């Protein structure tokens, strides 16, 4: 990174000639190694060495000349040649792809889906240079003295990952990279954090500047965090709160010793509004005073005292927010007082900016009075904060706001007792009011405790629309912070919580969602929750989520294992049936059961409330009786006429052949998936024939996915009859991955398919075949012939899988 930092920063040198002596020498050496070249090649090499002087003339060359010159250009010149190449009808994609192979030396994931290799190369190049894993002197095409790696590649970066000690954040906020940060503010859409470590205050300061510029004044719409086994609470809350658009006034966000320029106009506008409000209050005060003291309320002295106390409270609150980080609180009187104050997101008028400052205020002896006076103090907080900012605020400390949360986190450890998980479930599901956190026993006991910082003390900026947390343990304190943020995060559209060890804290998240759903301008439409252990039966959780947030379009609930404290099934949780589900907007529902029985009676309320349901996926469920699947199909037919995609994964359907055939002939379904469902485990050859005949008669079915069902060679060959001359099938996609298929069986299937296509005069709608994890490595030559002939018919997606891993499966189907 040190080698690239000089060029990776600031404005590149002025154009003064060629692409650099070292680059020209490397180019000449490369051509000499290839032997004597043609006159055109020698001329092109000479031109490429003098592009600084000849660039404008080169862009005017005819296409056939420009085509031979483009591969000889440096990255700097090649990027500038895009417009000329486009005008000449040329594509630079092959050149960028070769650059990727030569420089990155890896195959990118999903390379078949990459539509612009220029963007892919420059985006990855930016990240590698930023993190110091790529030496620009390693290739002559990168070693151009006109080329500033970070500056010139930053406009192409739409996704960036920061990791470890956040060295990338420090580099990007350095003064010499100011232009780079401005470019990222316009281009970056996805910001990811991966494997973060604890960092010091200077690094956090850089992170604050980065998030403020890229989120609050930029275009970042998605923040994702991955693999943080022991998260730093302060750092995590910092990222979450700034992603939600909360932070202190822009004056505190100094960029290289000067306030954020983009916040200045907002601050000026707020100052004008405050001056106008003060003038109006002064005018009203004079008019009231002229009416005489006799017309005042008898409670006027008390109200005046409340004003004084309110300013004292606000000064104290400001000191809490602004003083340096302190050791854990030891004031038991404060703890006792705070434990009596409930956390309520709805306490703010209008619900536009939820906050919870009860704990901080209750620590002040002057404020242990009436509720009216507490409201008076809170109402005047902002004005008094400005008065007291001078003696309490350290201009060098940007983290007071978050350190308040850290102190609260430490004090929270003093509380060890909480209600049982069963009580948490019963309290939340039986609550109809939906007040955030009130149903969580921990929230009831602890009140406005750790992680719930006073959002009213923060400035509200632009926020992201997608938040993803993968493999990051969330404590109760962090969950309450997240719940508090969610309650007013109206711009949020997608929320993904994956393997966070939520447990009973899921109720705190649900309370935040319930508060958010009451906002008329709420945009949340997708919620995905997955974890190792389920704290409650999946169907009960689905009902609770839809009850809290009926506006969802997509809901995914996935668990690996059942919590042993939960019980043996839905029968042990009678509250599941008691949750009333309002009419929802749900279009996609995915449930992964931790080997729970699939009871249609508990799924039925969800299906009835989701008349718009289009996609349903059921994973790892067990069928308690033979009639259960039939009941499900009847419910789907009655309640969900718009359903067009149905998926079963790891559900034993070996004894449900009748229901499988009913699904395959359903005219409403366009995509059906039976993945690892043991379809042919105890079936006869007649069952396969019935499947083929049913699919041949169904003109609505477009996609049939049968991975992991032990088709073997003979069943695959039989499936080719789906496309016979007498078939009315419109099947476009067939997935036969993980089905013990060998090369000779695939070749026979190909020949039979070719015969049917010929009989139909070449008219066939079949376009995609998936063959992952089959035994095609047992005879490479036969497999290559089969794949070559198949690719002339349809698009084939396969892999080079080692079939020796599946010896047990091979024995079972012999």
TrEMBL record:
Does the record's keyword annotation contain Ribosomal protein?
A: no
Region Disordered: start-end pairs: 1-24, 271-307, 415-439
| Entry keyword set | Leucine-rich repeat, Phosphoprotein, Repeat, Ubl conjugation pathway
Q: Which SUPFAM superfamilies match?
A: RNI-like
Q: In what ranges is there compositional bias, type Polar residues?
A: 417-436
Q: Where is the signal peptide?
A: none
- List compositional bias (Low complexity) regions by residue number: 1-14
Coiled coil spans: none
List, alphabetically, the GO terms of the cellular component aspect.
Answer: cytoplasm; nucleus
The question of whether Cell membrane is a record keyword is answered with: no
Q: Which InterPro entries match?
A: Leu_rpt_41, LRR_dom_sf
What's the source species' lineage? Eukaryota, Metazoa, Chordata, Craniata, Vertebrata
Species annotation: Falco tinnunculus
Q: What is this protein called?
A: Leucine-rich repeat-containing protein 41
- Which PANTHER family has this protein been placed in? LEUCINE-RICH REPEAT-CONTAINING PROTEIN 41 (PTHR15354:SF1), MUF1 (PTHR15354)
């Amino acid at each position: 990174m040190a080698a690239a930092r000089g060029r990776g920063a600031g404005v590149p040198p002025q154009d003064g000639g060629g692409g650099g002596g070292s680059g020209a020498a490397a180019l000449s050496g490369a051509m000499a190694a290839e032997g004597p070249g043609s006159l055109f090649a020698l001329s092109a090499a000479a031109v490429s060495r003098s592009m600084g002087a000849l660039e404008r003339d080169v862009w005017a060359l005819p296409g056939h000349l420009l085509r031979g010159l483009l591969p000889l250009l440096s990255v700097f010149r090649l990027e500038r040649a895009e417009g000329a190449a486009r005008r000449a009808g040329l594509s630079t994609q092959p050149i960028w792809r070769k650059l990727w192979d030569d420089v990155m030396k890896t195959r990118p994931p999903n390379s078949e889906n990459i539509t612009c290799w220029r963007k892919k190369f420059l985006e990855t190049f930016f990240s590698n240079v930023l993190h110091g894993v790529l030496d620009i002197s390693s290739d002559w095409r990168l070693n151009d003295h006109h080329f500033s790696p970070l500056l010139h590649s930053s406009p192409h970066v739409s996704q960036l990952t920061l990791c470890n000690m956040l060295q990338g954040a420090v580099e990007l906020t350095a003064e010499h990279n100011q232009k780079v940060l401005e470019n990222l503010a316009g281009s970056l859409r996805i910001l990811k954090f991966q494997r973060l470590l604890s960092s010091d205050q200077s690094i956090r300061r850089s992170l604050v500047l980065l998030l403020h510029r890229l989120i609050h004044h930029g275009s970042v719409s998605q923040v994702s965090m991955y693999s943080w086994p022991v998260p730093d609470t302060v750092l995590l809350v910092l990222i979450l709160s700034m992603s939600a658009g909360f932070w202190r006034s822009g004056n505190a966000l100094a960029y290289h010793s000067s306030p954020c320029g983009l916040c200045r106009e907002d601050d000026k506008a707020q100052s004008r509004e405050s001056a106008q409000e003060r003038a109006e209050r002064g005018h009203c005060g004079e008019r009231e005073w002229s009416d005489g003291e006799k017309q005042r309320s008898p409670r006027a002295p008390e109200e005046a005292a409340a004003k004084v106390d309110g300013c004292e409270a606000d000064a104290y609150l400001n000191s809490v927010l602004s003083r340096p980080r302190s050791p854990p609180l030891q004031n038991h009187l404060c703890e006792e007082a705070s434990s009596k104050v409930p956390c309520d997101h709805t306490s703010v008028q209008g619900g536009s900016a939820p906050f919870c400052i009860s704990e901080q205020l209750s620590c002040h002896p002057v404020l242990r009075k009436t509720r009216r006076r507490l409201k008076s103090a809170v109402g005047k907080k902002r004005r008094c904060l400005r008065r007291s900012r001078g003696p309490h605020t350290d201009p060098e400390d940007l983290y007071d706001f978050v350190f308040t949360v850290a102190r609260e986190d430490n004090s929270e450890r003093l509380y060890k007792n909480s209600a049982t998980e069963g009580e948490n479930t019963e309290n939340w599901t039986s609550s109809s009011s939906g007040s955030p956190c009130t149903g969580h026993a921990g929230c009831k006991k602890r009140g406005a405790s750790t992680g719930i910082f006073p959002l009213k003390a923060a400035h509200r900026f632009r926020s992201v629309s997608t938040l993803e947390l993968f493999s990051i343990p969330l404590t109760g304190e962090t969950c309450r912070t997240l719940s508090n943020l969610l309650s007013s995060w109206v711009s949020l559209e997608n929320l993904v919580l994956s393997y966070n060890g939520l447990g009973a804290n899921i109720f705190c998240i649900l309370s935040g969602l319930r508060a958010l759903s009451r906002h008329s301008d709420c945009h949340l439409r997708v919620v995905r929750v997955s974890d190792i252990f389920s704290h409650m039966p999946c169907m009960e959780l689905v009902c609770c989520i839809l009850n809290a947030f009926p506006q969802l379009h997509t809901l995914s609930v996935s668990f690996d294992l059942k919590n042993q404290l939960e019980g043996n099934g839905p029968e042990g949780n009678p509250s599941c049936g008691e949750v009333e589900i309002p009419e929802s907007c749900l279009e996609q529902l995915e449930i992964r059961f931790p080997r729970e029985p699939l009871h249609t009676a508990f799924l039925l309320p969800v299906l009835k409330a989701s008349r718009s349901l289009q996609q349903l996926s059921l994973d790892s469920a067990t069928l308690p009786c033979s009639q259960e699947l039939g009941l499900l199909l009847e419910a789907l037919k009655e309640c969900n006429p718009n359903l067009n995609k149905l998926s079963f994964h790891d559900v034993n359907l070996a004894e449900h052949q009748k229901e499988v055939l009913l699904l395959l002939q359903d005219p409403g379904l366009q995509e059906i998936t039976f993945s690892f469902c043991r379809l042919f485990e105890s079936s006869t050859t007649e069952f396969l024939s019935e499947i083929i005949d049913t699919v041949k008669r169904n003109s609505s079915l477009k996609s049939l996915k049968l991975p992991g069902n032990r088709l073997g060679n003979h069943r695959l060959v039989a499936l080719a009859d789906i496309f016979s001359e007498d078939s009315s099938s419109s099947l476009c996609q067939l997935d036969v991955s993980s089905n013990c298929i060998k090369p000779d069986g695939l070749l026979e299937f190909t020949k039979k398919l070719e015969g049917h296509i010929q009989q139909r005069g070449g008219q066939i709608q079949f376009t995609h075949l998936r063959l992952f994890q089959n035994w095609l490595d047992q005879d490479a030559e036969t497999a290559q012939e089969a794949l070559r002939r198949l690719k002339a018919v349809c698009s084939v997606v396969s892999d080079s899988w080692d079939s020796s891993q599946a010896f047990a499966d091979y024995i079972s189907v012999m």
